[in-house]
Design a protein that fits this description.
The protein has 403 residues and is an alpha+beta fold. The protein has three domains: 132 residues, 2-Layer Sandwich (Beta Polymerase, domain 2); 101 residues, Hydrophobic Seed Protein (Orthogonal Bundle), CATH 1.10.110.30; 59 residues, Serum Albumin, Chain A, Domain 1, CATH 1.10.246. The chain has 20 helices and eleven strands. The strands form three sheets. Strands 3-4-5-2-1-8-9 form a seven-stranded mixed sheet. It has a two-stranded antiparallel ribbon with strand order 6-7. β3 and β4 form a beta hairpin. The longest helix has 20 residues. The chain binds adenosine-5'-triphosphate (ATP) and magnesium ion. It is an enzyme of class 2 (transferase).
Length: 403
């Protein structure tokens, strides 16, 4: 057992001392068996949510409806979820309601893939009724029970299967894959929000290129927002090393760019991305269009698009051109560092200074003056220092009048 589990042992032992069963479950157990870094250690227990809250002094009822209570233990939050089955599935979706049960077996049985249906007790023993460890050793993704039935219950599982391909580099077990091919259209019933979560994880995985191939092969892509008509382009995506991209905004931008999406904002709205993320993607796409039309960065284009968007656009441009992204991004970072100013905030003069110097009322002339200063500072004509800029403005005005 390694550190993240050892730290959580107190939670399991306390539950056991009170007469309940408790185990580590889900993604953390799978990742531990795979020697991957473990993010969240999740715990499943026979105790009902009220019982969990009665035992631990610090709890947060985050999802009582689904049986989840967060327990704070040594300052670390742990999701403790009551063993459960899911109510009747309707419309190929996970139900709103769940039924609490007292048996671990039933809880593992409702889980999606055998590799995700392994429990580990406080002594490090595995409880693995569906041969999840064998699947992990063979590097295959197989549903718990009959794939068709599991996808009819919750169609999102088909997409989860492919995002796990992207994260783990596993193969879909043949029966599981056939069932995805046969039932791809059920994805229509799934909410956009749930699809977006899985799709973002899919784009971020080290094996994203294989996952894109599978999206096309299984035709799942046809039931994703804005992608139905993009078969050819999606197939192209599998030719790229997605792991060269380092943020969610970069990955969406790369996707939109390679898919030739004309109306970025309506495409992103279909996926219900946050306003923040939408803005970031638009900034990167704008930066990308600028650097591609100018063929390279200039001080002015860098300043105009801003550091963050420029660096992301450079990573994408390098990927598209088959160049070494890291080197290009590093070189661009140096170029950015050598700019006298990177944003308006860096300018040593503000609009208020300008009004103080010249008197009168604010108005468009203040913005024009600031722009003039920015350009002069960027071009290295004047230093970014208040008095010098003031003197330069004066000189510039007399000079302009004399011309
Ligand atoms: P990650 O490391 O990306 O979080 P994970 O396996 O922990 O992967 P989660 O979405 O956090 O994935 O889900 C936690 C666990 O809950 C899974 O391991 C699986 O056992 C179960 N699970 C999640 N979603 C479903 C689903 N749609 N159907 C059945 N079981 C599910
Ligand atoms: Mg998880």
């Amino acid at each position: 057992m390694n550190e993240p589990f050892r730290r959580a042992l107190g939670v399991i032992r306390t539950l056991k001392q009170h007469g309940y069963e408790a185990y580590f479950v889900g993604g953390s157990v799978r990742d531990y068996l795979l020697n991957r870094p473990i993010d969240d250690v999740d715990i499943a227990t026979s105790a009902l949510p009220d019982e969990v809250m009665a035992i631990f002094p610090k709890t947060i009822p985050v999802g009582l409806k689904h049986g989840t209570v967060v327990v704070l233990h040594d300052g670390v939050p742990y999701e403790v979820t009551t063993f459960r089955t899911e109510g009747t599935y309707e419309n190929y979706r996970r139900p709103e309601s769940v039924t609490f049960v007292r048996s671990l077996y039933q809880d593992l049985e409702r889980r999606d893939f055998t590799m995700n249906a392994i429990a580990m007790d406080d002594t490090g023993q595995f409880i693995d009724p569906f041969d999840g460890q064998a699947a992990i050793n063979k590097r295959i993704i197989r549903t718990v029970g009959k794939a068709k039935d599991r996808f009819l219950e919750d169609a999102l599982r088909m997409m989860r299967a492919i995002r796990f391909v992207s994260q783990l580099g596993f193969q879909l077990e043949e029966g599981t894959k056939q069932a995805v091919i046969e039932h791809a259209s059920l994805l229509t019933y799934i909410s956009v929000e749930r699809k977006t979560v899985e799709f973002e994880k899919l784009m971020a995985g080290p094996f994203a290129s294989s996952a894109f191939s599978l999206l096309v092969e299984t035709k799942l892509f046809a039931y994703l927002p804005g992608l139905a008509e993009k078969r050819e382009e999606l197939q192209q995506l599998s030719n790229y090393e997605w792991s060269a991209l380092t943020s969610t905004a970069e990955r969406w931008s790369f996707l939109l760019y390679l898919l030739n999406i004309e109306h970025a904002s309506s495409f992103l709205r279909q996926w219900k991305l946050s306003n923040r993320l939408t803005k970031d993607v638009q900034a990167i796409l704008h930066a990308l269009s600028i650097v591609r039309s100018f063929a390279d960065w200039t001080k002015e284009t860098l300043y105009a698009v801003g550091a963050a968007a420029a660096l992301s656009a450079e990573a994408i441009r390098s990927l598209v051109n088959g160049e070494k992204g890291e080197e290009n991004v590093q070189a661009l970072r140096q170029q950015l560092d050598s700019l006298p100013i990177q944003t308006r905030q860096d300018l040593a003069v503000t609009g208020k200074d300008i009004i103080d110097w010249y008197g009168g009322k604010g108005g468009p002339w203040v913005e024009e003056t600031l722009k003039k200063l920015e350009q002069a500072v960027l071009a290295g004509i004047v230093e970014n220092e208040k008095e010098r800029m003031k003197a330069w403005l004066k000189w510039n005005q007399t000079h302009e009048k004399n011309c």
